[in-house]
Amino acid sequence: MSSDGVVADEAVRAAWDAYQVLEKRTPAEERQQAQQRLKAAVDSVGREQVSRGTVFLVGC
Fold first, then answer.
1. How remote is the C-alpha of 44 from its chain's centroid?
2. Cys bridge to 54: 4, 13, 15, 31, which one at CB 3.0-4.6 A?
3. For 8-29, how does the pLDDT look when each residue is reduced to its tens digit (9 = 90+)?
4. What DSSP letter does each residue of the chain carry, written as one string?
5. pLDDT of res. 5
6. pLDDT at position 1, please?
């Protein structure tokens, strides 16, 4: 999150991917792809930024 409270787009997308990984109704192949995107996002923007993206989604 920047100093003005903006959450990175990639972090919000990664938060949605985390939901898809946890959702039991998500097909296995889709879950695996979401898991790969989530890992790439954590490597790119960091775990803290992805956590902020999750808080943003929950707050919406």
1. 12
2. 15
3. 999 999 999 999 999 999 999 9
4. --TT-PPPHHHHHHHHHHHHHH-TTS-HHHHHHHHHHHHHHHHHH-HHHHHHHHHHHHH-
5. 78
6. 47
Task: Check if the beta carbon of residue 53 is closer than 8 Å to that of residue 37.
Answer: no
Q: 31-35, long-range: CB within 8 Å, 24+ apart, which pairs?
A: none
Amino acid at 19: Y
What distance lies between CA 55 and its chain's CA centroid?
10
Q: How far apart are CA 1 and CA 50, in angstroms?
A: 9
CA distance 36 to 24: 17
